[in-house]
Amino acid sequence: MSDLETFRSETKAWLEANCPAEMREPARDEADIYWGGRKATFSSDAQKQWFEVCRDKGYTVPAWPTEYGGAGLAPAEAKVLRQEMAAIGARPPLSSFGIWMLGPALLKFGTEEQKKHFLTQIARGEIRWCQGYSEPGSGSDLVSMQTFGEDKGDSWTVNGQKIWTSYADHADWIFCLVRTNKDDKYQGITFMLFDMESKGVSTKPILLISGSSPFCETFFDDVSVPKSYGENIPGYVGEINRGWDVAKYLLGHEREMISGMGGGEHTAAIGAAMNRHSAKTGDELDPMLRGDLAMFDVDALAFTAMSEKFMDEMKAGKGHPAQPNMMKYVGTELNKRRHELMMTTSGSRSLEWESEETSGGKPSKNWLRTKANSIEGGTSEVMLNVISKRILDLPGA
Amino acid sequence: MPLFHNEDQAMLADTARQFMAEEGNTTKQLRHWRDRDCPDGFGHAIWKQMGELGFTGILVSEDDGGLGMGHVEAGIVLEEIGRNLTPSPFLTSSVLAATALGKGSNDLRGRYLPGLILGESVYAVAVDETAKHRPEKITTKAEKSGNGFKLTGKKSFVVQGASADMLVVAARTSGSDGDDDGITLFAVPKDAANMSQEPVRLVDSSVASHVTFDGVDLDGDAVIGEVDGGREVLNAMLNAGRIGAAAEGVGVASGAMDMTTDYLKQRKQFGKLIGEFQALQHRAAHLYSEVEIARAVTIKAQQLLDAESENADLMISVAKAKVAKAAGLSVKEGVQMHGGIGMTDEYDIGLYMKRDRALQEFLGDAYYHAGRVAELSGY
Ligand SMILES: Cc1cc2nc3c(=O)[nH]c(=O)nc-3n(C[C@H](O)[C@H](O)[C@H](O)COP(=O)(O)OP(=O)(O)OC[C@H]3O[C@@H](n4cnc5c(N)ncnc54)[C@H](O)[C@@H]3O)c2cc1C
Asked: Contact A274/B379, CB-based, under 8 Å?
């Protein structure tokens, strides 16, 4: 047996022994997702148990080095773990912006001490992070952002406003783009890290069309941000005034993560499930709808192959560096289409906003939530702009 | 196995890319033969050259004198064929017929494979009986007669049928029209008595035949595989051909896309390069995404087929359908974004559109394969 096959059988056995049955069901809502952090509570014993065994084995971040709380798995091993987890439908033990976004940026740009300090906290689910990028006047044109940090020697005094800050009201710390030089648009931004409990930080939730308030307006009123949290632990990532490089690198990872929200490598075909669903409610699939479902399944299954290829190429350092933009564009458009088809298949039942049958209007709320997929982390139009410019090398883009 | 080419495969791709670009380009092949009204629709010289390079026997086992490679490797050659629109018997002979023959007797393999490997023989495949791909329904009959069979029926749109030294024919030996069982595959030599062909030129300048079997006598040793158990050989042959056609389609899609993005960087209107217009940029970027996905699912399906995975059938249909959509988009956007020049015979972009149309129909279009995806998924 090859080493990888040995690893596969060990992984299977480990998952069998350690992943509670309840954690093998798809997450139904927010409460089923464990985000970690100082304010976190577990929604069930199974959730707690699953998180703790994974944390102790480094499986909250399997591919990170062991000295930062990961399991140090090689790309091929990490792929096997993903496949085996998918095979039993295991939920991620910990979800977090720290894992998806800040972590990769720190791994690339952080100092050794910074990595030890912050990455370990992320891996162990101790600190929950939020992302302070967008501002009221700066969305797609992010680099025009104005939140300003005045240099006070050992610290900055930060003033300004962020918007659409996901989970700002639940987060412990923020990674935040702050202008530190007003004369240089691209080389005048610093990528700062600070505690959301700092004096002068306040948040105000915004209600979404889906009925929930997962994001906030975030205000900074004379917030003091230290330049250092200890020896070789700067309060910013990369260099002062060079935060835009970090910001862009992080966006690549964010886009990769969002592209997988419809399932990524495991994007499911939905036709069979929709057919069963119709049969159960006494309906028959409309033949025209069946055709659309089949065409959707073709696209969805083809995208699973694309996701697998994308991951394989990234890990081997082969893919185009701008490829996450393509993945994000296609993945989010597919996810929107999936929910449109699910709504249509369920008919009027899917309109119910609070009924028990729909567990509180889940179909419609989830459907509405997917509409944000092609906006958050950069809109589809912006993704197409980036593909044109960086991959196709089209002029003037 | 990662979803990209390993070193050996990358080397093969380099060889194939260079060879097809130099020898298989439209000036030397497609236009050359088309403008001379060549009855074969392809040149025999390039077929021999492919034999010298070993391409012809890529799917033939080493025991039989071939390279014993898989569908990933065959796909590498086909992608370059697609990119250069190189007309050749590769898909019909080296992919479809070779797959069927690989399941045949020692005698059949000895009779037909050496000529194929040398790039001397051409073989065609006669399955469909109507203008659409419907391999479920085979009515051509082969009735027992003496020690052999008597073949009666009609096959339509047999690609390169009239150029072929032998036709692989799917016929019914028992059961009724829609049955899975009762199918047998035969190797029918071109000079068989009572077989007639009516060749027609197609939109992409290839030539297909309507073939009539009017009581063709066949020996028992013309049978490929088992009598009445031919569905298995037929399916293996179709799987190989479908994923092969998908790989060629990826080449067509990429070739057309590259031509188009190049044009966006050259053509000026309103004092600007047309590639500066965002309306065109977004369409080009969307097209790029679709073509990348088509390529990814094609490699996935090739690997699954090579690994004899039970998932191969499904992913082959996904690939054939996805490629059809992506390549269809590529050639249509290609012609449109070229403007008037895209409609001229002088420019190759229209040739891509024609080849794509023929590949769409070959072994099942996007609708056929999406339908198959639904059936295989249980709805
Ligand atoms: C659910 C959700 C969560 C989010 N979470 C966070 C978060 O945690 N932190 C954070 O910082 N931000 C977050 N965002 C903000 C998100 O990144 C922005 O909404 C996004 O970048 C778009 O900016 P905007 O809303 O200002 O839209 P605009 O930039 O004003 O765009 C409006 C429209 O114009 C189009 N457009 C703009 N520029 C161009 C162009 N050059 N070419 C073509 N079309 C163009 C856009 O595509 C869009 O259709 C979140 C957003 C959502 C919906």
From this structure: yes
